[in-house]
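task queued by scheduler; priority normal; single chain, no ligands, no partner chains; default sampling; output format set to structure tokens
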Amino acid sequence: MLLPIVIFLSTLILIITQPKGAQIGTIAIFGAIISLIVGTVDFIDVLEVTRIVWDATLAFIGIIILSMVLDEIGFFEWCAIKMAKLSRGNGHLMFVYALLLGAFVSALFANDGAALILTPILLSKMKILKLNGKTILAFLLAGGFISDSASLPFVFSNLTNIVTANYFAIGFAQYLSVMIVPYIVSVAISILVLWLFLKKNIPDTIDINLLSNPDDVLKSKPLFYISWIFLALLLMAYFIGDAYHLPISLFALGGAILFLMIASFTKTVSPKEIIKNAPWQVVWFSIGLYIVVYGLKNGGLTDYLSIILKDLSTYGNFVAIVGTGFISAILSAIMNNMPTVMIMDIALVDASNQALAYANIIGCNLGPKMTPFGSLATLLWLHVLAGKGVSISFWEYSKFGLLVTPPILFVVLVSLWVVI
């Protein structure tokens, strides 16, 4: 058990610190190779891991490519300016609208999409609005939090959702029917708690006349209008695919490629640049880190977790759901949510209670907000901010995350218990 733990922790530390600019996918693959060499996993395990994560990984790539194309035509910038204009200069209303926009983007374009694309747009607009440093930080912290807490409603809203839904054979419509209420509750309670914690740094009025007209940022108005229709049709396609048990990546990646072709036909984007800048490292990150994590499973960690989860179930559904969610959350905060979701999924196989799979997702989506390294989305978010000259310290982030996450997580888990 000691050897796989050492390999996992070493790999995770290197992923978080990225020494000499090493890519996260390269580090994860290196950890997987070490695991193979020392024998904590074998090639059969590699095939099993690939079977588990291929759909989730390709779907994620598709969602990010689609997000990049929409970003290129001005879709998200239009939404951000429109949001600000709708607030009519009321700072607190703008704060709420910004979080609602983040919830929308996270739900449809995944939490990583929200972190990578929406964050720099909001940051640039806040600088145009001449907001002070504390106000900008308040908006950024809240936006970073909502990107994960709102990544619940659809299977494609988070990598953890896809992996777990595939692992337990949960269909697209079935997943949505269960998680729509926790999603609404999560967005509502997140906005309330975040506003209560950050309201002292939000100005009463903001001069929105400093912003340009929303339509002025669009590269192609016809394509912008088409994009809304395309997104609606793509969402319908997910339901149709669910009826025929088709992989979600078929629509996520296929839809992204189709829209990229449409956009390139209008000369609005460069397909070469979009494909080149897509986050391919995430493919290697997913496969590599999961192989390393499988070594923990082979070492018996999932057996210990399985015993704990079975014991929780003896106390009834409420304790089982809340307990499972908090175990997932704490593990995610300590060791990142990507390995946590897989370890917990494996441990939950014998639990005979699918509600715990949903609790695991909620814990893995919200729990990472307690630490800066809890999720890939947060690491990407911090990386984007650092590139824009905004530095958030480990203590500053953790103090905020540890205060706001537990109460929000508890309320969302209770909402799951109510609907199950």
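post-processing summary
- The chain has a mean pLDDT of 90.
- The chain has one domain: 2-419.
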